[in-house]
């Protein structure tokens, strides 16, 4: 059930993101890119296999049973991807505002078709 | 650990520290910032030269640097082998030329040019050095983030418009990168390139489709950056809109995509990959050929010189990708030689175009407008105009440089462009197993020759229009020595490559041999030993 929910969520996020990315207004493009980024982050997370109720960080001391833990690497990757995605989205937002100011249009080509 | 052992990471640390340091100073301190930047870039050149000399020792494969002293498959590694050292040196050379050129005026056309420049170098060097897929993603983002800033350097409507396309395309490609990397991780459970090469043959049959999908998606991310058709429509606009020194340094950015494909394709999907061996090679070859054809048509159709050069970038990328798709050590040798030569040529040509364009349309001096908008002090500007000697017979000298670029670009003898293409073609025609020449090799042969011919035609046309039939109101452009010197430097490097073709060819041949038989590379990375820490030693 978790798998189905997660796959649907990723699918809906990326699907709407791609549709918005192909729209002509800059605001739609950046919202689309953000949605794709969310979908991709969930996807990376799911690549460590879905397990609920298990921690990714090992306890100190004692014998470690790897089956009692979930894979920590994808979680670290997601964290990095979120930070980078946040930064580049902010950067793109600034460029969009500059373009809006310079061209007087929010069309991605800088002029109305 | 000896200090010299840390040289492997110096190409990342040095630009990072320099770029951050330069952020601390006010924009008005141009001279100081330029001096620091020049010093750092020359330092980088020195380091890259040392690394090339170290990598080019008989028998040695790769120097492996364990970040944080974690053993290979668990931590992130930096690997300096012949290919990465060569790319570092190429980057440093191009960066030196672009930086010197920008000192004439461009570096004052917008804020934080010097910091962004150093961060771009950091990203480039990191991407060439890293031996870890996710780390490669991080360095790609670093170099892209810096390139977004540089792309918009000098502002203006055209730059912002094409810059926005550039950013949107690259952000989307980064998402594909992440999907590809995580799919590969999900199947194999590792991100270290050498470890991946070991684990891929053992991937069970039911997971193979996922793995191949992952590598294909990752490949598309790289190919977008390399500018393969049909993912290249952003490139000509963006490159021709960028400021000249920025465009010159950007000519190595498409090569980052090519580098990633060149590094990963033989390593992960080479002969040792079992069922996935040579996955995607034919697709790469065909896409490369189409890109070459598309770029050639673009070169012929271009009216403005900057666009012509931008389409030449596509021709160069297409040639390299098609050569990688042939998956043959001999072809790769030619491709590496061609890559160095064409990157230097295109870098020089981007710089030259700006100088020549000044004689074409003096009214449209975009730079002056943007500088006004940026609020630069006009009086200070006038004083700076006097610096340097304007060359006599400027047009004649620019014309000679233009002819050299034409020869290099179209691959006519006697310069290095010819040697590169000749090496490519002769290897492609003898690549077949049984002596028979495959149809694809003939297609490659034909497209490469025709693209060279058309490049010559286009260059001739532009050259005649510019130098022999200048517009009636044409003026002799003012060219400063600092602007001309980088062009001369890059072209001189091509001449040096021609004269010293023997040693260069031997180097690239050793590079391509180790790329196509990566066992030693894998062994070197996975067996890299940790440095004993003082605590561990005391505990013993």
From TrEMBL, chain B:
Localization of this protein: Cell membrane; Membrane
Keyword Transmembrane annotated: yes
GO cellular component: plasma membrane
GO biological process, alphabetically ordered: ATP synthesis coupled electron transport
Listed InterPro entries: CPA3_Na-H_Antiporter_D, NADH_UbQ_OxRdtase, ND/Mrp_TM
Keyword rRNA-binding (UniProt): no
A matching Pfam family: Proton_antipo_M
Keywords: Cell membrane, Membrane, Transmembrane, Transmembrane helix
Stretches that traverse the bilayer: 6-25, 34-55, 61-80, 87-107, 127-151, 163-185, 216-235, 242-262, 282-301, 308-329, 335-353, 395-415, 435-458, 479-499
MF term (GO), any: NADH dehydrogenase (ubiquinone) activity
Topology class, membrane: Multi-pass membrane protein
Top-level taxon: Bacteria
Domain NADH:quinone oxidoreductase/Mrp antiporter transmembrane: 131-433
Family membership noted in the UniProt record: Belongs to the CPA3 antiporters (TC 2.A.63) subunit D family.
Name listed for the protein in its UniProt record: Multicomponent K+:H+ antiporter subunit D
């Amino acid at each position: 059930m978790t798998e189905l929910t997660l796959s649907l969520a990723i699918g809906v996020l990326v699907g709407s993101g791609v549709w918005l990315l192909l729209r002509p207004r800059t605001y739609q493009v950046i919202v689309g890119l953000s949605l794709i980024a969310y979908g991709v982050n969930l996807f990376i997370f799911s690549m460590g296999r879905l397990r609920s109720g298990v921690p990714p960080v090992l306890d100190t001391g004692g014998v470690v049973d790897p089956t009692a833990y979930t894979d920590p690497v994808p979680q670290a990757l997601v964290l990095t991807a979120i930070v980078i995605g946040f930064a580049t989205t902010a950067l793109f937002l600034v460029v969009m505002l500059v373009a809006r100011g310079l061209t007087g249009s929010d069309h991605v080509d800088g002029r109305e078709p | 650990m000896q200090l010299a052992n840390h040289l492997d990471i110096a190409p990342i640390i040095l630009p990072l520290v320099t770029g951050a340091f330069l952020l601390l100073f006010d924009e008005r301190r141009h001279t100081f910032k330029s001096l620091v930047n020049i010093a750092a870039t020359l330092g980088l050149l020195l380091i890259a030269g040392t690394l090339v000399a170290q990598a080019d020792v008989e028998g040695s494969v790769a120097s492996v640097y364990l970040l944080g002293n974690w053993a290979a498959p668990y931590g992130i590694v930096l690997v300096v082998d012949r290919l990465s050292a060569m790319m570092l040196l190429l980057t440093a050379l191009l960066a030196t030329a672009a930086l010197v050129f920008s000192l004439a005026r461009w570096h004052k056309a917008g804020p934080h040019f010097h910091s962004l420049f150093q961060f771009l170098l950091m990203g480039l060097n990191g991407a060439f050095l890293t031996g870890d897929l996710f780390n490669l993603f991080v360095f790609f983002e670093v170099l892209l983030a810096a390139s977004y800033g540089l792309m918009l350097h000098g502002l203006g409507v055209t730059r912002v418009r094409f810059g926005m396309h550039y950013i949107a395309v690259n952000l989307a490609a980064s998402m594909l990168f992440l999907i590809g990397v995580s799919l590969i991780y999900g199947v194999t459970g590792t991100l270290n390139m050498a470890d991946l090469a070991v684990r891929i043959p053992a991937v069970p049959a039911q997971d193979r489709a996922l793995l191949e999908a992952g590598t294909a998606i990752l490949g598309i991310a790289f190919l977008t950056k390399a500018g393969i058709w049909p993912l290249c429509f952003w490139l000509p606009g963006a490159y021709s809109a960028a400021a000249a020194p920025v465009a010159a340094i950007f000519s190595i950015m498409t090569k980052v995509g090519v580098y990633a494909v060149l590094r990963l394709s033989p390593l992960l999907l080479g002969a040792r990959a079992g069922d996935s061996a040579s996955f995607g090679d034919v697709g790469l070859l065909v896409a490369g050929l189409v890109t070459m054809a598309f770029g050639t048509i673009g070169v012929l159709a271009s009216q403005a010189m900057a666009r012509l050069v931008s389409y030449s970038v596509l021709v160069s990328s297409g040639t390299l990708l098609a050569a990688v798709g042939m998956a043959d050590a001999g072809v790769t040798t030619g491709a590496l030689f061609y890559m160095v030569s064409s990157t230097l040529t295109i870098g020089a040509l981007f710089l030259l175009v700006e100088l020549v364009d000044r004689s074409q349309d003096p009214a449209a001096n975009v730079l002056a407008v943007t500088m006004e908008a940026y609020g630069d002090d006009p009086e200070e500007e006038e004083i700076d105009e006097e610096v340097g000697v304007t060359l006599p017979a400027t047009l004649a000298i620019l014309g000679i440089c233009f002819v050299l670029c034409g020869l290099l670009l179209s691959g006519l003898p006697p310069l290095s462009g010819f040697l590169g293409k000749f090496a490519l073609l002769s290897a492609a025609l003898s690549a077949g197993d049984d002596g028979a020449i495959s149809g694809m090799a003939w297609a490659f042969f034909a497209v490469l020759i025709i693209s060279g011919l058309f490049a010559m035609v286009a260059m001739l046309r532009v050259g005649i229009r510019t130098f022999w039939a200048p517009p009636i109101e044409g003026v002799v452009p003012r060219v400063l020595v600092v602007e001309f010197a980088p062009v001369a430097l890059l072209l001189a490097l091509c001449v040096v490559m021609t004269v010293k073709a023997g040693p260069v060819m031997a180097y690239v041949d050793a590079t391509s041999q180790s790329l196509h038989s990566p066992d030693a590379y894998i062994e070197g990375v996975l067996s890299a030993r940790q440095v004993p820490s003082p605590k561990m030693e005391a505990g013993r």
